[in-house]
Amino acid sequence: MRILMVLAHPLEDSFAASVARAAKEILEGRGHSVDLLDLYREGFDPRLTAAERGSYFAERYDASEVTGWIERLQAADGLILVFPQWWFNFPAILKGFFDRVFAPGVAFEHDQAGGRIIPRLTNIRLFWALTTTGSPWWVVHLYMGNPVRRLLKRGIAAFCSKRLDFRMISLHDMDRATEAKRKRHLDRVRTLVSRI
Questions:
Q1: SS3 131
Q2: From CA 37, how far away is CA 44, in angstroms rounded?
């Protein structure tokens, strides 16, 4: 399987980077091809351009500035996102990746007759998120309703592809996580990823 792994963290020595390395190592060890797209290291600009927004509902979306990233997404069979949740949401750079790369003609089509969205990422069969939260589990799930999972599963994944394997694996209360807790989470990630 060809997997596009998108890492969204500004620090090269972050826990998110450790999760990405561990997952990549396991996947490649199992014979999968992993394309690691480190948004910060690759200088991805999350700002939607005027040309992109202006062409959003046009006959052809202007993807000229993000063509390389679109090609990598279209070449993948699976997508794994690795990121921290900040303020119960995506890092801005990852949100910008969705805004600019998951675009009309790439991830979906507008159904002019009914206003629905028609999925176009039929190549993506696996959509996983490996993430952390600063808040405890109960705050994320009970108080906030797990907004990132809802956005990823019901919004982005469901609107862009069908019949895919969606999972979100989270380490909660990261701000107070001990070294032992982080190690247990990395072991859990390795175990789950080894089943792909």
A1: strand
A2: 10
Count of residues in the chain: 196
> In a 3-state reduction of DSSP, which class is residue 96?
helix
Two tokens at 146? 């797990």
DSSP string, 175-189: GG--HHHHHHHHHHH
AA letter at 170: S
With beta carbons less than 8 A apart as the criterion, state whether 131 and 188 touch: no
| Contact (Cβ atoms closer than 8 angstroms) between residue 52 and residue 63 | yes
Q: What is the C-alpha separation between 166 and 143, in angstroms, rounded? A: 23
Token pair, residue 139, equals 């705050």
Q: What is the pLDDT of residues 117-154, one digit of tens each?
A: 889 999 999 999 999 998 888 988 888 889 999 999 99
pLDDT digits (tens, 9 = 90+) for 59-99: 899 999 999 999 999 999 999 999 999 999 999 999 999 99
Tokens of 108: 């979906």
Rounded Cα distance between 67 and 73, Å, is 10
Rounded-to-integer distance, Cα 155 and Cα 173, Å: 25
Give the helix/strand (H/E) hosting 137. Answer: helix 137-138
| Closest to 79 measured CA to CA, from 126, 10, 148 | 126
